[in-house]
């Protein structure tokens, strides 16, 4: 397993690419904080998208998942300072780690780490 930092100037582009490749894949979202420990927010729900935005010069990342065909959940991460992608030894994405200035880390983990070309179009 290797962890690679995504440079800030490419956050929007790389997150759009991640979404294009992994939209519909099952993800779990865990929040890890210095005080609260690890808390699971999402367990194996289809990924709708991950996007980067700026509100009042504050870097914000939004992670959206589907709860049902008509309902979705969006987790907002504020004051982002680093984004890392975890990859398997074969180069398949396994997770994103999004770090905030307050020491909180949001981990978006794919249920299955696989190279997209091996999935054969099945999300």
Keywords:
123 residues; mainly beta; 8 strands; globular; 55% strand
Question: Layout of helices and strands, plus pairs?
Answer:
Elements: E1 2-5, H1 11-22, E2 26-33, E3 37-55, E4 58-66, E5 72-77, E6 80-87, E7 93-100, E8 105-110, H2 116-119
Antiparallel strand pairs: 1-6, 2-3, 2-8, 3-4, 4-5, 6-7, 7-8
Structure description:
The protein is mainly β. The chain has a single domain (2-114), classed as Protein Yojf, Chain: A. The protein has helices at residues 11-22, 116-119; strands at residues 2-5, 26-33, 37-55, 58-66, 72-77, 80-87, 93-100, 105-110. Strands 1-6-7-8-2-3-4-5 form an eight-stranded antiparallel sheet. A hairpin with a 5-residue loop joins strand 6 (80-87) and strand 7. The longest helix has 12 residues, at 11-22. The chain is globular, with a radius of gyration of 14 Å.
User: Which of globular, elongated, flat, extended, rod-shaped describes the shape?
Assistant: globular
- Strand arrangement across the biggest beta sheet: 1-6-7-8-2-3-4-5
Discrete helix count: 2
**CATH C-level class:** Mainly Beta
* Domain tally: 1
**Low-confidence residue ranges:** none
Q: Over all CA atoms, what is the radius of gyration?
A: 14 Å
Order of helices and strands: EHEEEEEEEH
Distance between the termini: 23 Å
Instruction: Please summarize the sheet with the most strands.
Output: 8 strands, antiparallel
CATH topology: Protein Yojf, Chain: A
Task: Count the beta strands.
Answer: 8
Question: Which architecture would the CATH scheme give at its second level?
Answer: Distorted Sandwich
- Based on secondary structure, the structural category is mainly beta
Instruction: Tell me what portion of residues adopts beta-strand conformation.
Output: over 45%
